[in-house]
Write a structure and sequence with these properties.
Helices cover 64% and strands 9% of the residues. The protein has 157 residues and is mostly helical. The chain has one domain. Strands 1-3-2 form a 3-stranded antiparallel β-sheet. A hairpin with a 3-residue loop joins strand 2 and strand 3. Helix 1 crosses helix 3 and helix 3 crosses helix 5. It is elongated, with a radius of gyration of 18 Å.
């Protein structure tokens, strides 16, 4: 049986599209749930989401911790991972390719620290890809733990 390079490329890119799509969907789910909680809580608070700086999950986290005074220390590790995934999500959504200029050393350092994110460093660029489903499973687990704690603590208040 002859190895078909074109078939291999199609399968590889299809896997990447699949992994990227699921990752972005998971991230959107997290963002939507955090937004829903903040919007409900705004009705009971003088300070509104628009009064805070930041965007997306970062803004929602600040609202949850600073306005709603929900203590999320028990999910600090999950939050740190979510912040890394925030950078990955932004790169996947806003860049046409999975390549970063080598001058962006902060982002490269973050991406190197994400488990199951493959990368290659070249002279002028850094490329990355989701290695397999384990990154998605880790993200799902972090989202589940984080949201469970957020909503559990909200109910206690």
């Amino acid at each position: 049986m002859q190895h078909d390079f074109e078939d291999h490329e199609i399968k590889f890119h299809t896997h990447q599209l699949y992994y990227n799509s699921i990752f972005i969907s998971l991230y959107s789910f997290l963002e939507k749930k955090m937004n829903q909680l903040c919007k409900l809580a705004e009705k009971e608070n003088i300070l509104k989401l628009n009064d805070l700086n930041g965007n997306g999950v970062i803004k929602y986290y600040n609202y949850i911790t600073k306005v709603l005074l929900i203590d999320l220390n028990t999910v600090e590790d999950e939050w740190e991972l979510i912040k890394k995934y925030n950078k990955l999500r932004n790169q996947l959504v806003h860049s046409p390719v999975n390549t970063i200029d080598n001058k962006n050393s902060n982002l490269i350092t973050i991406f190197k620290s994400i488990a199951n994110l493959n990368y290659k460093e070249r002279e002028n660029s850094f490329t990355f890809e989701i290695a397999d489903k384990q990154l998605l499973l880790d993200f799902k687990k972090a989202i589940n733990s984080f949201l469970h704690e957020v909503f559990y603590e909200r109910i206690k208040h």
